[in-house]
């Protein structure tokens, strides 16, 4: 049960946390930019930041998971 809760929390964090840290640009924020190409570049850059942050979260989870497995195996060998 606790493992399922942990997986759900990690999954929710990987999905929702990047949107909280790097929220999408709103139309109000972009209304002062006249050039459509620049608007698309800004939206694309924000999306790239969100994706990069998501991959960093996944990498951190993998590192912690690996450390936990190694620690557990060392504990079992005692």
TrEMBL record:
The chain crosses the membrane at residues 55-76. It comes from the Bacteria. Keywords: Membrane, Transmembrane, Transmembrane helix. This is Uncharacterized protein. It comes from Microbispora triticiradicis. The lineage of its organism: Bacteria, Bacillati, Actinomycetota, Actinomycetes, Streptosporangiales.
């Amino acid at each position: 049960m606790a493992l399922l809760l942990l997986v759900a929390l990690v999954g929710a964090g990987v999905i929702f946390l990047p949107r909280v840290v790097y929220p999408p640009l709103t139309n109000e924020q972009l209304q002062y930019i006249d050039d459509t190409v620049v608007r698309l570049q800004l939206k694309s850059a924000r999306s790239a930041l969100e994706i990069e942050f998501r991959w960093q979260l996944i990498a951190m989870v993998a590192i912690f998971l690996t450390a936990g497995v190694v620690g557990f195996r060392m504990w079992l060998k005692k």
